[in-house]
From TrEMBL:
Metal-binding keyword on record: yes
Keyword terms of this UniProt record: Heme, Iron, Metal-binding, Monooxygenase, Oxidoreductase
Keyword Iron: yes
PROSITE patterns: CYTOCHROME_P450
Stated name of the protein: Cytochrome P450
Organism domain of life: Bacteria
Family as reported in the entry's similarity comment: Belongs to the cytochrome P450 family.
Cofactor(s) needed by this chain: heme
């Protein structure tokens, strides 16, 4: 397969549109020109071509994500300042290579495996229930704020020793990093540059307190009490970068996935009614337990479908470590490839009516990780996949069994891509006491460019 070259003039238009709306731009370019594109940078010449490849093809995706020695992860967002905390804090798991990556992946896998994660369920449910009970009813609430509160407390309570005094300030500052991350710096980026040293100090102080107190279920305690792959104490860069990565992965992923799932359910009230009825029958007014949730297949399929449509990280970037071939194209060392994960998740040959929210499609659907890019794939696939699904299932089940959810009339929902993809603008929900009447309102806004909603609520 050869890449379709847009040429310099159309490439310039692509770049300009990408900076304004990357997801729609990538989608429209692939629809018009196919799954493998070549973008020429403005300074590209025939003698010295400067190119970016853009792919939305499962086979090419498999090549890129499985070939971890040939293709390495690079940031899609603006880098920090050289020799500054802002650059050290982005040195996370996706940036580690070779023996170092294997060493730390092996270190962090045990607490994230299925059995330990399932054992966390009672505590997860208790945290989620206490939060929902504290949210006010019958008034508009900022959706991303309450989702973030849920995600932060679950991540800290289950992966960081339940140390809210230290963990919440760290989580809040890492949230600023995620907000600031984009190719073109803005005011949020400037605030992040100023805040990064404070975050680095907070993480390192927290790590120092963990030394001498190993805890096999605490990511930071594991990091602080074990040597690196060469037998040395972990460097400040390693500690800051890995903790920023794990907080971002656990907290920001859940925040965005939960927000999008709730929006989609309000726009599909028949599905939400079915889901609530199945949850009520399985739980029978009892506590949220994994054995009960396992009897609600619609819950898992709802989570999977919401994350298929709105994956937390919808665009990935890889860079060639040496001369290689991708499809039928010769690629030079250092050239980059943008992977349209959101588009791969919408391959119509696997997902009929791919832009529609249809949880029932998962009753007989088992895509490979390369066909469902939510937690990555290959050797650098996110180790917290089971934990992420568990958080989502328990958080969503707790909310829906304790409250009815509606959008305020006149809701307008945008979307913003930094490292992760989240609802944007004044996005609110109203939580009602169960049993009362609710009024579902049609949401407008730019998010509708990315999903096909029913004609009528």
């Amino acid at each position: 397969m050869l890449a379709y070259g847009l040429g310099r003039r159309r490439s310039l238009g692509f770049i300009a549109r990408f900076l304004a709306d990357p997801l729609v731009t990538v989608r429209d370019a692939h629809r018009e020109h196919g799954p493998f594109l070549q973008i020429d940078y403005p300074h590209s010449t025939r003698a010295n071509p400067k190119r970016l490849f853009v792919v939305a093809d499962t086979g090419l995706c498999r090549t890129l994500l499985s070939g971890t020695e040939t293709w390495v992860n690079v940031q899609i967002n603006m880098a920090g300042r050289k020799n500054h905390a802002s650059s050290r804090l982005v040195y996370g798991m996706t940036r580690l290579r070779g023996l170092r990556h294997e060493h730390y992946r092996k270190m962090f896998l045990p607490p994230l495996k299925r059995s330990p994660v399932l054992a966390m369920a009672p505590k997860m449910a208790s945290i989620a229930e206490s939060l929902v009970d504290g949210w006010p009813v019958d008034i508009p609430l900022p959706l991303t704020k309450i989702s973030a509160q849920m995600a932060k407390h679950l991540a800290i309570g289950l992966l960081f020793g339940d140390d809210s005094a230290r963990g919440l300030p760290v989580a809040n500052m890492i949230g600023s990093l995620m907000t600031a991350s984009w190719i073109v710096p803005g005011p949020a980026y400037v605030r992040w540059i100023l805040e990064a040293p404070k975050l680095e100090r907070a993480i390192l102080t927290w790590a120092a307190e963990k030394r001498g107190n190993p805890d096999a279920q605490d990511i930071l305690a594991l990091l602080a009490n074990n040597l690196d792959e060469a037998g040395n104490p972990p460097s400040p860069q390693l500690i800051g970068g890995i903790i920023s990565f794990f907080f971002g992965a656990a907290y920001d992923t859940c925040l965005n996935a939960l927000s999008w799932a709730m929006i989609l359910l309000t726009q599909h009230p028949a599905i939400m009614t079915r889901l609530v009825a199945e949850l009520d029958a399985a739980l029978d007014r009892g506590p949220v337990t994994m054995s009960a949730l396992d009897r609600v297949p619609l819950l898992e399929s709802t989570v999977k479908e919401a994350m298929r449509l709105f994956p937390p990280v919808p665009l990935l970037m890889r860079k060639a470590t040496g001369s290689t071939v991708l499809g039928g194209e010769d690629v030079k060392r250092g050239e980059r490839v943008l992977i349209g994960g959101m588009l791969i998740n919408r391959d119509p040959s696997l997902y009929p009516e791919p832009d529609r929210f249809n949880p029932d499609r998962w009753s007989n659907l088992k895509p490979s990780p390369y066909q469902y890019l939510v937690f990555g794939a290959g050797g650098h696939m996110c180790p917290g996949t089971t934990f992420g699904y568990q958080m989502m299932r328990i958080a969503l089940a707790t909310i829906l069994t304790k409250r009815s959810v509606e959008l305020p009339v006149g809701s307008s929902i945008g979307h913003r891509l930094a490292v992760t993809h989240r609802p944007h603008g004044k996005v609110e929900v109203i939580l009602r006491p169960r049993g009362g009447s609710i009024r579902q309102a049609r949401a407008n806004g730019r998010f509708r460019d990315l999903v096909a909603l029913p004609d009528m609520l």
